[in-house]
Specification:
Structural class: mainly alpha
Number of helices: 2
Helix content: over 70%
Mean pLDDT: 75
């Protein structure tokens, strides 16, 4: 019983892994940039005790991440 990918060379497996890691690193970088951006806006605009403070920031960052993920899924699919 051989797997369908048995004929694949180790080099092509590594190349695919590197591409996957690059895409993952890029997505994480974009996500963290978005998180920092949203947090900076909230820190600049929001005053103490408004919109739940830290909770509001976390919720907004979560919505931003969700929007980013949906965008990437739509682009890939």
């Amino acid at each position: 019983m051989h797997s369908p990918l048995h004929h694949e060379t180790p080099a092509s497996k590594w190349a695919r892994l590197v591409v996957g890691l690059r895409l993952g690193a890029f997505m994480w970088a974009v996500t963290f940039l978005l998180l920092a951006f949203v947090s900076a806006i909230y820190a600049f605009v929001g005053t103490d005790g408004e919109s739940g403070g830290l909770f509001g920031r976390i919720a907004m960052a979560g919505f931003a991440m969700l929007a980013l993920v949906m965008f990437f899924i739509r682009r890939v699919a």
